[in-house]
Each structure stands twice: as C-alpha cells, then as structure tokens.
Amino acid sequence: MSKRVYCFDYATGRYTGLDEALPDPEGGQPMVPGNATLVPPPQPSSDGEVAVWRSQTESWELVPDYVDEDVLNQSPLSEEQLATAARRHRNGLLRGCDWTQVPDSPLGESERQEWQMYRQALREVPEQEGFPTEINWPASPASN
User: Fold this and answer.
1) What is the mean pLDDT of residues 81-102?
2) Residue 93's closest CA among 115, 111, 69, 114?
3) What is the pTM of this model?
4) Which of 42, 46, 67, 121 lies 20 to 30 Å from 129 when distance is taken between CA atoms?
C-alpha cells in the first residue's frame, strides 16, 4: 500500500502538492523524497494563506500568501529572473528524485527507466519553445 507524502518547494518550504512514497523493501517506514514529509499540511483558513514547511521544527506553518496570480501573470520579472526561478524549481524536482537513480533504490529496471526519462525531460525544460514564460512541466512517474 502506498503512502501519501506532502511535497514542498526546497527554497521556500511552500506546499506544492501530493505524491506517493515508495515502500521500504525491508518493510520499514516508506521512502520519503527529500522535498516531502508524511505530515499533512493544515488547511488555510482563507485564500490569503499558504502552508509552509519549517524544517527546523519539522512542522507546517500557515503564513500570509503574498503571491498574487494576477501579478504573476503580468509579471514585472525579466525573462532572466523567470528563467532563474524555473531552473531552481527544476533543480528541486531533480534533487527530489535523485534517490531513484542510486544502485540500491527499490525500483525495478522499468521503473528506473521511467524516472530516467522524467529526469531527462526536466533537464530539457530550458530548451522548450517559449521558455521561461511558458513551460510544459513533465509529469512525475510517481503521479501515474
């Protein structure tokens, strides 16, 4: 039985969504990626809040959400700034699945190849037409 993990952005701690932990082949605790936790985030009480993971206390905190989607869509950021942010996000996604490529990972060969293809697609994100203003992020094999 798979276990849900709650993912967060490496740099900001901001909650980014759900994923599935892989079972420990030795029957222990599920294998949780580095940018995730088994602790579910609290539900924001308003649209103006967001859950942020605090590594120091290993807990979630609700904080004001200063990200305004309308502002992001009319972003005053330069293309260079957008590209830097996209690469940071991509690098966090890559770090979060590094474990899939180590020799002692519990993945079978076909699963390992799926993760290799996903990781390669992440590396190619900056080469997409429209980057960095339009990005087609690849789907994680864990979400399939």
Assistant:
1) 88
2) 115
3) 0.51
4) 67
